[in-house]
Structures are given as structure tokens and as C-alpha cells.
Specification:
The chain has 112 residues and is mostly helical. It is 70% helix and 0% strand. The protein has one domain.
């Protein structure tokens, strides 16, 4: 009798398709190690841009007034010291960024 009630109804509704939402849980808490890497990266980033600004300023002061020879020795020493001290932060910064990129990609791929 139940089967006759189903088939005897005039307009039947199409079957509803159930949509199951996909939930991806992402842990947004940073560990102490990640906070340390973020801090080191930001400090090295600041040091890098400060060094590059000093290099460009020294070059500008040398080129701006080529007739003034009194400031050239101090500007050359400043340029040499900044270029030497900025090479290490640039290299270290690159290594830290590659390290962070590697860990970020491995973190993302762990969810796939």
C-alpha cells in the first residue's frame, strides 16, 4: 500500500541531492619556532633595506658633487663597510627565507 501511495501522487518532487561540505581545519597557532623565524626574518629585512639605503646614499653623495674631494675618503670607507656588512645579511636572509619557504610548503602539502 505504501508503494501505491508513492506512485499514485500527481506531481512528485525530484530527489534532493545532498551536498556534503568539505571542512579543512587549519591550525593558525604559530609555534615558538615559527615566531622566532618571523622575528629573525623581519630584523634581517630591516637590516638589509637599511644597508641598501646607505649604499645608495653614499653613491649619491659621491656622484652629486664630484669636485668636492674632502668627503670622498669618508664616503668610500662608508661604502666599503656597508657593502661588506650587507653581504652577510643578504646571504643569511636568503637562507632564512628559503628555510621558511620549505617549511611552509611542507606544512601546506601535509594537508593534501
Amino acid at each position: 500500500m505504501a508503494s501505491s501511495e508513492r506512485s499514485s501522487g500527481g506531481a512528485s518532487q525530484p530527489p534532493k541531492s545532498e551536498v556534503n561540505p568539505i571542512v579543512i581545519k587549519i591550525n593558525t597557532k604559530f609555534t615558538r619556532r615559527q615566531w622566532t623565524l618571523i622575528g629573525i626574518t623581519s630584523l634581517l629585512h630591516t637590516l638589509l633595506w637599511g644597508s641598501l639605503f646607505t649604499i645608495f646614499t653614499s653613491i649619491y653623495l659621491i656622484v652629486a658633487d664630484p669636485g668636492d674631494t674632502t668627503n670622498i675618503p669618508s664616503e668610500v670607507l662608508t661604502l666599503a663597510s656597508v657593502s661588506v656588512t650587507s653581504l652577510a645579511p643578504i646571504r643569511l636572509y636568503s637562507y632564512v627565507r628559503l628555510f621558511c619557504l620549505y617549511h611552509t610548503l611542507s606544512f601546506i602539502l601535509s594537508f593534501l
